[in-house]
From TrEMBL:
Name this protein carries in UniProt: Alpha/Beta hydrolase protein
Protein source organism: Phyllosticta citribraziliensis
Key word Transmembrane present: yes
GO MF annotation list: hydrolase activity
Lineage, broadest ranks: Eukaryota, Fungi, Dikarya, Ascomycota, Pezizomycotina
Keywords of this entry: Hydrolase, Membrane, Transmembrane, Transmembrane helix
Coiled coil: none
Lineage top rank: taxon: Eukaryota
Membrane-crossing segments per the record: 34-56
């Protein structure tokens, strides 16, 4: 009887052990399947999205420009007071492009001009041209033509604060003209690389021919996507006969080109675009070959500098790059690349990237927690790079460093301005 009991107990233990092993094996297999699915499903979804962007170029346009993301819910863009401006400090109007699109634009009066004319501005009827008259009739007035970044509209995020910050550099003189590109905000059309250049040309034409402000009293400003538009624009005008030269150009949070950007860009600093493919260069090159908008800013800035260095252009150029080291949207290395392409274009035999980086270390002016700056001067102009420690991707638009860079750009053609 004892032996039978031992055998029964042994058999029970064996069954229990087998069941435990089976249960453990089942659990492990379940976890492995779950882990596999957690990798396969996102990867499959990711490549499906990329495939859709290739198959349907219009989706690519929406994904790159994000022009349908307003970021100004329940606010009327024709009521600038809703974004912190004084009554009638901002004139909301339309600018016509050469191909028939209408751009929704703002003309922002500097606070000094507004305060001196407040009573007249408040009494002015709807549709009055008083703001334009205040800009046009002052021979000392200055104008910043502002090109904003992707997503949102002219009133989104930090943009209204940045208009106020820009004017603060000389509150009696610096006006701001900004407009939504085609397809953004209340502007008509659909964005494209060629189309945004036409938008920029339309804004300059309004400034020169409607507002009567010569190019020597205009600074071109761009942030993020706006830097690509600004670079394309100044290259265009440098190629005109005769060439048109602006007082200066300030570029904040630039990118060198879309192909390089897609390999590093993360939406909101988190969601990757093509960065997962960057470790497989042939695959990355394959997807980049389908890009509709390439925005080759690194090549265009070189062309602009070469033309500006030629004897055909009399006025000196003034070019400033600003970037924040904590920018998680566009890596500040993009600005290093653009600065190199610009400097390289000033030398007949060129200069290597590493060689320039070595020279920058010798020329740097360190500002501690504020960052650093480097200036490259030639007989024909100045190329300046300023790296801030802080400012992320868009906050630095409203920082004093940006306002001061714009003031210096105006002083490039008039050293006494703002003093």
């Amino acid at each position: 009887m004892m032996a039978e009991a031992l055998l029964i107990s042994a058999a029970a233990l064996c069954r229990t052990s087998n069941q435990t092993t089976l249960s453990t094996t089942t659990t492990i297999m379940g976890l492995l399947k779950l882990a596999t699915l957690s990798i396969i499903l996102p990867a499959t979804s990711y490549f499906c999205i990329l495939g859709l962007l290739i198959a349907f170029p219009s989706l690519q346009t929406h994904a790159f420009y994000l022009h349908r993301v307003s970021l100004t819910w329940f606010k009327d863009l024709n009521v600038p007071e809703a974004f912190g401006f004084l009554p009638n400090q901002v004139k909301s109007f339309s600018i016509q492009t050469s191909d028939g699109e209408k751009l929704h634009a703002w003309h922002v009066l500097p606070l000094g001009v507004y305060s001196r004319n407040q009573e007249h501005l408040l009494a002015a009827p709807s549709g009055s041209d008083l703001a334009l008259k205040l800009l046009r009739d002052d021979p000392e007035s200055r104008l910043v033509i502002y090109f904003h970044g992707t997503a949102g509209c002219l009133a989104s995020g930090w943009r209204p604060d940045s208009y106020r910050g820009i004017s603060s550099a000389s509150p009696d003189k610096i006006h701001v003209l900004t407009a939504d590109y085609r397809g953004y905000g209340q502007s008509t059309g659909m964005p494209s690389e060629d189309g945004l250049l036409l938008d920029g040309i339309a804004m300059v034409d309004w400034a020169i021919h409607q507002a009567g402000i010569p190019a020597s009293r205009i600074v071109i400003f761009g942030q993020s996507l706006g830097t690509a538009v600004a670079i394309s624009l100044i290259r265009h005008y440098a190629s005109e006969i005769p060439a048109v030269s602006f007082s200066g150009t300030v570029l904040v949070a630039s990118f060198s080109d879309v192909a390089t950007l897609t390999a590093t860009y993360r939406i909101g600093g988190v969601i990757p675009v093509l960065s997962p493919l960057s470790r497989v260069p042939p695959l990355l090159a394959f997807f980049n070959s389908f890009l509709r908008s390439t925005w080759m800013s690194k090549d265009r800035i070189g062309e602009f500098i070469r033309r500006s260095e030629s004897d055909a252009i009399a006025q000196k150029y003034h070019l400033t790059f600003i970037h924040a080291e904590d920018d998680t949207d566009i890596d500040c290395l993009h600005t290093d690349v653009l600065f190199w392409h610009a400097v390289n274009a000033t030398k007949s035999i060129g200069i290597g990237y590493e060689e320039l980086e070595h020279e920058k270390q010798l020329m740097k002016k360190e500002w501690g927690s504020g960052g650093w700056t480097v200036e490259w001067r030639t007989d024909k102009g100045l190329i300046r790079q300023e790296m801030l420690k802080y400012g992320v991707h868009d906050r630095l638009m409203a920082y004093p460093a940006t306002s001061l860079a714009i003031l210096k750009a105006f002083q490039a053609t008039d050293p006494g301005f703002g003093r």
